[in-house]
Design a protein that fits this description.
The chain has no helices and eleven strands. It is mainly beta. The strands form two sheets. Strands 2, 4, 5, 6, 9, 10 and 11 form a seven-stranded mixed sheet that branches. A four-stranded antiparallel sheet has the order 1-3-8-7, with no helix packed on it.
């Protein structure tokens, strides 16, 4: 298994969560790692990405201001903190890794962790 997400759960509106994604040594060498989410009946959406070149971060419009992505290379772990959770944040959250730039294909995917906001 290359990527393993954790940290999801059921929270009330306005609460916070910090998701974690641990990676294998091989996958941890990926330049770009990101978080995606998919709600029932909706397309998968990229919400945050971390480019190792310079530590540049990217956020979708829906994620700006409430989501914070970070990466601890020593622990081979990617994080996503979400504050002020809203019911529309309810989704399965996936971690993914791309060897190249963040606009390239993400080759490695985790199984996902469920976030439910009520």
């Amino acid at each position: 298994v290359q990527l393993v997400e954790s940290g999801g759960g059921s929270v009330q509106t306005g609460g916070s969560l910090k998701l974690s994604c641990s990676s294998s040594e091989y996958t941890s060498r990926s330049n770009c790692m990101g978080w995606f989410r998919q709600a029932p009946g909706k397309e998968r959406e990229g919400v945050a990405m971390f480019d190792s070149h310079g530590g540049t971060t990217y956020y979708s419009n829906s994620a700006k201001g409430r989501f914070d992505i970070s990466r601890d290379s020593a622990k081979r772990t990617l994080y996503l903190r979400i504050d002020n959770l809203r019911p529309e944040d309810t989704a399965m959250y996936y971690c993914a890794a791309a060897p190249g730039a963040c606009d390239a294909s993400f080759l490695f995917w985790g199984q996902g962790t469920q976030v439910t906001v009520s």
